[in-house]
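thought: fold this chain, then report.
action: predict
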Amino acid sequence: MRRRTFLKATASSLAVPYIVPSSIFGANAPSNRINVGFIGLGNQSTIDLPAFLNNDDVHVVAVCDVNRGSDGYRDASQFLGREPGKQKVDDYYSAKTKSGNFKACDASSDFRQLLSRDDIDAVTIIVPDHWHAIITIMAAEAGKDIYCEKPLSLTIRQGQAMVKAVRKHQRVLQTGSHWRSGPAVRTACELVRNGRIGTLQKIHTFIAPNNAESPGPGWKAMPVPDGFDYQTWLGPAPEAPYHHDRCFYRFRFILDYSGGQTTNFGAHSNDIAQWGHGSDRSGPVEFEDAGSEWPEPGSLFTAPTRVAFRARYDDGVEIHCQTVTEKGKPNAGARFEGSEGWVEVSSKGLSASSKSILTSEIGPNEIHLERSNPSRTENVYKNYLPDHVRNFLDCVKSRQDPIEPVEVGHSTATLCHLGNIAMRLKRNIKWNPEAEEIGGDEEAAAMLSRPMRAPWQL
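observation:
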C-alpha cells in the first residue's frame, strides 16, 4: 500500500481523541495541551519520555515501536519497547490522577498508524538514524511538529530532503542535540564569538570511544526474538541477517544504520564548535583523515573505532575532531584556541586559560546567543534535555524556530558525515557548503546518499 493511501485509509479509524481527566494537566486548558506521540522506545526514550511527561501542558497519547518488549538495550537491566513504554505512560498518569488504573495511552508497531491520527500535534523520533528522514518527512506531510533525536540524518542528501519537507509544510523541528541548551555551552560560545580569546585559530572537538566491542569476523546469525519486527526495523537499510548486536543500542556502530561515535557524540561536540565559530548554518570547506582506525574486515561493526579527522573553514580556522581515550578526559566537548587564550566546554564543565575570561561579562551590544531557559545560569555540565524539550514545546505554541532548528541540525550532521567520508577514503575532500556538493571526487560525492531498500524511498 502506498504511503498516502495508507494514511487516508487509517485516519478515520485511528484518530479517536481520548477523554482525559482535567486533573492531569492542572491549570492547562485542553486548547493549550500538546498531544504527543512517541516513535521509538529504546535507550534514549528513558530520558526523553520523562522530559515530555513532566510538562503539564503535554499529553502523551500514543507510543510506537517495532519491538514489543525485551531487555538487552544499552545494558541487560533495560527492558524496553512499546509495551514497557505504554506502561510507563499509563503509570505516570495513574500516579498523577491517583486513580491507579489510567490506561489511555495507545501502543502500535507501525509509525504510520500514529502519524495518521488527527489528535496528535507533535511526534518524537527516537529510532535508529536510518529511519530519521523517512519518518520526519512523513510527519511533516501529516502536519505534525517534530522532535528528532540527533544526529538528524543518516546521509547528507537525506538531511537536505528533511530541511525541504519541514519548511514546505511549515513545521517546527527541534534536533535533539540538547547540549546547546546548556548555559556552559552558550557561555563558552559567547566568549569566543565576542573575542575574549582573541582571533579564533583552532577548535578541538572530543568524541567518546566506542562503548561496545564488535563481534569479529565469522560472527553467526541469530534467530529473531519473539515480538520483534526485524524486517520493519531494517526498513530502508540493506537486507542483513539478524544479530542481537546489530539492533537495539549497538546499531550505532554499523554504517548501514548510523555513523558511529562521529555522529553520536559528534552531534554534540561539533555542534558546539560550529555555534562558537558562527558557522552553524554553513560548515568547513575541506576535510581530511588524521589517523582514524576501523574494525577488522568482516566484523559486524563497521563504524570507526577511533575517530580522527581535520577540517578547515574558509577563514582558515581548523577543527580537529578525535576520539579521546585517556582516563579522566571528557567524553564530549570542544576547546576553542585563539590568539589570546582558550576556552573549553565539555562533560567536565567550563574552563579557560585565565579567570578573567570566565568572569568577563557580555555587554548589551555584543553577541548574545539564544537561551532555552533564561533562568539557567550554571557553568557546569548537567542534563539540560528538559530545557531543550521545553524550548521545543514553547515553539510548537509560538510557531517560532527552536534553538536547534532543522537547518542547524542538518549542518552539524553534514560536518560529521563529511568527516566519516574523509576517514573512509583516507584522502582530502573539498566541500562547498553553499551548494552542498563535493567537488572533484566522484567516489566521495556518491557517498552523499545511499540507496534505499524497496518499497521505502524519500
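thought: worth noting. The CA atoms of residues 317 and 415 lie 14 Å apart.
final: C-alpha cells above.
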